[in-house]
């Protein structure tokens, strides 16, 4: 009888803990957080909006369905150890997680080219166009040098559309996975963007 009672008591305690936890979740939201997606956090302070985006960029160069294709190169590119002069057009998936099958949140469209003669450096001229939640249809523009072989790179965000109108900011990128044979890469992005209400 005593054993049966203690089972009931521990069950009751578990239920109470679950109820307390469920009730605690809504109060964890800050008043400033107008919309919290897994990958996007928007904080309004006065007339300024700071948005932090975290997503993964999938650059598929090899295989049958590349999302990045070489559209031009110079005669000297073949002799260059840094592929100087080659230009790629891309339409790369952006997802919430490093797994290419994770939820898509947008696409990176535009060009990157090899702009370094002595060391490997890409020039990124891309629009990152989003398709999830309140960011559906909004984009930011990146125009920046990208020393892609470095572990961590910082790149400039120079403008945007929709919720990213008047955007200024920066992106911190880290290569999450690289296939040295094909050049395929998965890159983690942390982007900080300043806009106005
Ligand atoms: C590439 O290198 C080869 C061998 O050194 C040379 O013959 C050729 O002219 C070079 N091509 C260009 C476009 O510089
Ligand atoms: C963003 O930065 C944080 C802190 O350094 C890190 O934990 C997280 O993995 C980064 N996200 C991505 C997508 O790289």
Task: Report on the architecture of this protein.
By secondary structure, the chain is mainly beta. The protein has a single domain, classed as Beta Barrel (AOC barrel-like). It has one helix and eleven strands, in the order αβββββββββββ. The longest helix has 26 residues. The termini are far apart. About 6% of the residues have low confidence. The structure holds 2-acetamido-2-deoxy-beta-D-glucopyranose (2 copies).
Question: Which CATH top level class fits?
Answer: Mainly Beta
Number of discrete helical segments: 1
Radius of gyration: 23 Å
Q: Roughly what fraction of the amino acids lie in strands? A: over 45%
What's the helix and strand layout?
Elements: H1 2-27, E1 33-36, E2 40-45, E3 48-59, E4 68-72, E5 87-95, E6 104-114, E7 122-130, E8 139-146, E9 152-161, E10 168-178, E11 185-196
The structure holds 2-acetamido-2-deoxy-beta-D-glucopyranose (NAG) (2 copies).
One 2-acetamido-2-deoxy-beta-D-glucopyranose binds at residues 54, 56, 174, 188-190.
């Amino acid at each position: 009888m005593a054993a049966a009672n203690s089972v009931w008591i521990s069950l009751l305690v578990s239920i109470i803990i679950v109820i307390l936890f469920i009730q605690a979740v809504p109060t964890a939201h800050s008043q400033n957080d107008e919309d919290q997606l897994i990958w996007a956090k928007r904080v309004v302070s006065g007339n300024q909006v700071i948005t932090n985006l975290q997503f993964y960029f999938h650059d598929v160069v090899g295989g049958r369905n590349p999302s990045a294709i070489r559209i031009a190169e110079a005669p000297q590119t073949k002799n260059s150890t840094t592929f100087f002069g080659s230009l790629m057009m891309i339409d790369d998936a952006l997802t919430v997680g490093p797994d290419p099958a994770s939820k898509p949140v947008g696409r990176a469209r535009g060009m990157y080219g090899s702009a370094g003669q002595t060391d490997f450096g890409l020039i990124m001229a891309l629009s990152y166009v989003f398709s999830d939640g309140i960011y559906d249809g909004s984009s930011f523009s990146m125009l920046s040098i990208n020393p892609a072989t470095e572990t961590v790179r910082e790149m400039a965000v120079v403008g945007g559309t929709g919720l990213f109108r008047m955007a200024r900011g920066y992106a911190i990128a880290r290569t999450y996975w690289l296939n040295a044979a094909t050049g395929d890469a998965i890159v983690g992005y942390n982007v900080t963007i300043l806009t106005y209400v």
